[in-house]
Amino acid sequence: MAQHYVDIIKNAIAEYDNNQHSQDTYNAIAWIGLYNTIAWNNLTNEEKETLIENKNNFIQNDTDTCD
User: What span, in angstroms and rounded, lies between the C-alpha atoms of 30 and 44?
Assistant: First the structure.
């Protein structure tokens, strides 16, 4: 069920952002909202690390701000 909602959130963020970033970035942002939930804890360590890395890369490299 979490994956269903992650996909909906990921697609909504991408649409709102006019797809300026990769789908991996939007996926990471959507999953970070589920951090430390049962769904998050059911991911493999590799999946968690990839999501965190993608989120951190977005934060460090995004020069746009929400005005």
Answer: 17
Contact 53, 29 (CB under 8 A): no
Q: Which of 34, 26, 35 is nearest to 54 (CA)?
A: 26
Say which amino acid occupies 42.
N
> Helix-strand-coil percent breakdown of the chain, rounded to 5?
70, 0, 30
pLDDT for 2: 85
How many CB atoms lie under 10 A from the CB of residue 11? 14
User: Residue 41 above 90 pLDDT?
Assistant: yes
